Amino acid sequence: MNRTTLSRIIRRVEFSMLNNFQSAPQTVLINSIPKAGTHLMSSMLNEIPQLSISLDLTDLDKLMNDDARLRLFKSKTKESTQGIWLGHIPYTKSIDQLLLELNIPVIFIYRDPRDIVVSLLHYAIKNENHIYHEILREQDASSALQTLIRGYGNGTHHYELSHTSIPSLSNYVNAYSAWIDSKNCIAISYEDLMGINQDENLDRLCNYLNLNRSVKKLLKRGIGNKASSTLREGKIKTWTSEITNDAQKEINAQAWTDSSLKTFFHG
Fold first, then answer.
1. Three-state SS at 146
2. What DSSP designation does 2 have?
3. SS3 label, residue 54
4. What Cα–Cα distance (Å) separates residue 138 from each residue in 17, 130, 142, 148, 160?
5. SS3 call for 191
6. Which has the closest alpha carbon to 56: 23, 92, 30?
7. Can you tell me whether residue 185 is helix, strand or coil?
8. First to last CA, the chain
9. Strands (E), the chain
10. pTM (predicted TM-score)
11. Around 228, how many Cα atoms within 13 Å sit in the side-chain half-sphere?
């Protein structure tokens, strides 16, 4: 028996004992705005032996309407792949209803928009394959940050994400905000997983997934796992040292007219 097989057996026994020998969900959808914590949550759930990433639904954010998203969602999930589904899915009523009918639990993880925009700035400039790279690469950091806040092309007016359009921060958040109120979904902030409210929210997560609260031990181990190509620092409130006064004024102006944006603010 090799070391990998032995480790897998040990993990299964550990989980079974912590969870009173009850099984974990077979399929879970983790949904978020990009750079809001998708990989943090997947790292946590990966500590549960029965769950591993099985389906990538992150391209649904490129589609502009409910019908197009629903068609792609059905196409990608028609084989009923079990495991962790990763998604960047703007709120789509028909998908929300379908997930309810399929009895698939949905975890919506959200984050302070100011930290999202800072994380997105670093990632898009560094990654040549990112959809925004060509728009941002010729700009200095301050101008690129303003572009991500104000939007670019058609994205200044409505949610549109493409090689020629960046949604404004307000349009970005508005596209996802209704997931917070979905009856089929648990919404947890990145800040609450990384901060002083961690235990309380891990209890909420365990209750939602019908896991024994002792499983928090495994989920916490996943929080400490930094092995992700998209995780830059895994910290909260990094925006306080990176967002300029002008950029903060721009965000505040959007928040003044957009209650959804303010809902996502943390502290």
1. helix
2. -
3. strand
4. 54, 14, 12, 14, 21
5. helix
6. 30
7. strand
8. 51
9. 27-32, 53-57, 83-87, 106-110, 185-189
10. 0.91
11. 21
Q: Is 233 exposed, middle or buried (0-12, 13-18, 19+ CB in 10 A)?
A: exposed
Instruction: Return d(Cα 127, Cα 130) in angstroms, integer.
Output: 5
The first and second tokens of residue 103, run together, are 């009895």
| Residue 27 backbone dihedrals phi, psi, to 5 degrees | -140, 135
**What's the helix, strand, coil split of the chain in %, to 5?**
55, 10, 35
Token pair of 172, please?
A: 């970005």
CB atoms within 10 A of CB 127: 13
**pLDDT for the residue 237:** 79
Helix ranges restricted to H, 19-92: 38-45, 66-77
**Residue 166 contacts by C-beta under 8 Å, 6 or more apart in sequence?**
132, 135, 147, 148, 151, 152, 153, 155
pLDDT in tens, the chain (267 residues): 566 666 777 788 898 899 888 889 999 999 999 999 999 999 999 999 889 999 999 999 999 999 999 999 999 998 878 999 999 999 999 999 999 999 999 999 999 999 999 999 999 999 999 999 999 998 999 999 999 999 999 999 999 999 999 999 999 999 999 999 998 899 999 999 999 999 999 999 999 999 999 999 999 999 976 554 444 455 777 888 888 888 888 888 887 777 677 778 876
Angle 88-91-92 (CA atoms, 0-180°, nearest 5)? 110
Question: What's the token pair of residue 99?
Answer: 């997930």
Is the separation of the CB atoms in 62 and 89 below 8 Å? Answer: no
